[in-house]
Design a protein that fits this description.
about 250 residues; alpha/beta; TIM Barrel; 8-stranded parallel β-barrel; 8 strands; binds 1,3-dihydroxyacetonephosphate
Length: about 250
């Protein structure tokens, strides 16, 4: 297996995924604390629940912190009750959308192909999709981690180099999400290098690959020191302003 690769590191990206958390009042405090963040080496972004996109736009516009959604419809418009289109996300100034988060893959039966189709829908309206991949504990224990990720990525890679060069990949081992059990930097790097090798094979080896799964200020620096880890997708710790700002500070120093 590939163990290391690209020489020049990409810009670090520290992205919060609020999941289904927040209230208008709590968000106002969190966004106000993030707003002054001045991006140096690390860019900061937050992916908020749909109803709070307007609030994020109001609170962050003119700052260096960007915002996005946690999902996108594969359809551009139409009779799709409960869905939210890419054009709607653009109306609220979104720069990003997550696609294929493990919670959507497992709880909403999203297939690898659907995730790729959502990435394509995002690109079609000028959003940057953050394609999430990751293996379960059983898959890791069976030695299948890299094979699972290659399977998840296959329909995304089939979008072609032009598309893939415009997206971000997030490696989030399911067993590390919300468990407090982070992959070691070496475990994460091993998978990131394999992802980069797959990306390189189609001519997209220099896109950002984020790590996600119990990232906090205490472990961010060691993760970011790995050659193929270009930032973090942060759940719980992104809801605590000081913690999230400290993770970004680690990225600035990476
Ligand atoms: P935690 O950081 O809470 O483990 O969540 C990770 C995640 O799922 C981010 O998308």
């Amino acid at each position: 297996m590939t163990t290391a690769s690209n020489n020049s590191k990409r810009q670090c990206l520290v992205m919060g995924n609020w999941k289904m958390h927040g209230t208008l009042a709590d968000n106002a405090k969190l966004l106000a604390a993030l707003r002054p963040y001045a991006s140096k080496n690390a860019a900061m972004a937050v992916c908020v629940p749909f109803p709070y996109l307007a609030q994020a736009q109001d609170a962050l516009k003119g700052s260096s912190v960007t915002w996005g959604a946690q999902d996108i419809s594969v359809h551009s418009h139409g009779a799709y009750t409960g869905e939210v289109s890419g054009a709607m996300l653009k109306d609220f100034g979104c720069r990003w959308t997550l696609v294929g988060h493990s919670e959507r893959r497992s709880m909403h039966a999203e297939s690898d192909q659907l995730v790729a189709d959502k990435a394509r829908a995002a690109l079609a309206v000028g959003l940057t999709p953050v394609v999430c991949v990751g293996e379960s504990l059983a898959e890791r224990d069976a030695g299948q981690a890299v094979a699972v990720i290659q399977r998840q990525l296959a329909p995304v890679l089939a979008l072609g180099a032009d598309s893939v060069n415009q997206l971000v990949v997030a490696y989030e081992p399911v067993w590390a999400i919300g468990t407090g059990r982070t992959a070691t930097p070496e475990q994460a790097q091993e998978v990131h290098a394999a992802i980069r090798a797959a990306l390189s094979a189609i001519g997209a080896g220099n896109i950002q690959i984020l790590y996600g799964g119990s990232v906090k200020a205490a472990n961010a620096a060691s993760l970011f020191s790995m050659p193929d880890i270009d930032g973090a997708l942060v759940g719980g710790a992104a809801l605590i302003a000081d913690e999230f700002l400290s993770i970004a500070a680690c990225g600035d120093q990476a």
